[in-house]
Description:
The chain has about 475 residues and is an alpha/beta fold. The chain has 11 helices and 18 strands. Helices cover about 25% and strands about 20% of the residues.
Amino acid sequence: MLLAHLADLHLGYRAYHRLSPGGINARERDVALAFRAALDRVVELEPALVLVAGDVFHTVRPSNAAIADAFRQFARLRARLPEAPVVIIAGNHDSPRAVETGSILRLLAEIPGIIVVDDAARRVHLEELGTSILCLPHNALATGERIALEPDPEARVNILMLHGDVRGGGAEEKIRYVSEYGGAAVETSEIRPERWDYVALGHYHIATEIAPNMWYAGGIERTSTNIWEEADGAKGFLTYDTETRRATFHPLPGREVVDLPRFSALARKAGEAQGDVGPAAAERQEAGDEGAGTLPSQDDGAGEDTGVVAEGDEGGEATSSSRTPPALPGRYLEPAEIDARIRALVEGVPGGIEGKIVRLVITDVPRELFRALDHRQIREYKAEALHFHLDARRPEIKRTVGYGAPFRRLTLAEEVQAFLTRHWQRSSEEIRTERLVELAERYLAEAAGGEPEDALVDASAEA
């Protein structure tokens, strides 16, 4: 039996505040087009069963346009493949937290031939296919209650479909980064994929084989929290043949994402490599990297040259000859050098950056150097691309702390003595520092439950 496995559609996803000619958010339109392309390809493949492993919508309350288009497309799929049932489970994005809110996915269940499991775990029996599907939506896993993951002994084909983070059994080594937070954890030892004909997973946005018969289908478009990690990989869906036990990935067209090779604004000595510019496979940032530790970016409007005036220049934009000089001359590249590197990297993108999503990371950029860049040219890049993110990051501050090996750490008494004798300033000449030290030693000894060797006051003498 051939089945189609889709996941993480994220219909209604929006970003970048750019509109398409029809007035809809450009990225929302991209996702809708990818969904239509996916269904067109599914119709061509003629599977006997279609599985959607969660996150049909990007939010619990998507826009009316997203809801209407999803309804039309699923209805079209059923009209083109009337013999192929469609089974959908809810993911963390389209699962409401409040019971009274209700799930928007139940609307899709009004289409004949579409089965929706949006809350509790449920086994779906498809007698015409001799197939049993154990469905575990996000809410069923998020409760923390143990669920018996057992195949149906009477079914010819047993399928497990869930939306969550699979852990253990080497899954962590195969999942490159956390593409989405909020997923419920499921141990591979509980799933035991060898008992199932197929395990359809959702939540991780990159198509990934966890076991020969257990796959994440990945997303149909780049909608994760860190799309730059997915810049080089294709998006799409899977088909799986339960007889040949073979999975096939079907890529889909989508808007191109370009993560340009990063470089450093630090000047290099003669003979050293200038910056970190490398091939496209250069170091990519970790999950959650975007915006972490950055200067106020152009997207936030902070630091943008909307009239940045160089020192001594009133009214008029800074030019390469009148920009504010960077701190510590010679340590950093000149603004003109950085502008040239930016220009070379942008112009080196095959096919240009028009309509693409582009990021360039520049490390070690002081604020005054960032303000001296050619922001007029940067604005032109931002207008040409769908989204151009110049991610300028301040130099890392390294502090030297005089504690730790190879020196012995001071005791509390030694710390007090050092403070009183070296750092503390007397407010009166009548205060004797050595007496304060002696009192401190006494009080510390009393707090520790002992007596100092040389007490200032002899208890017997007082008696």
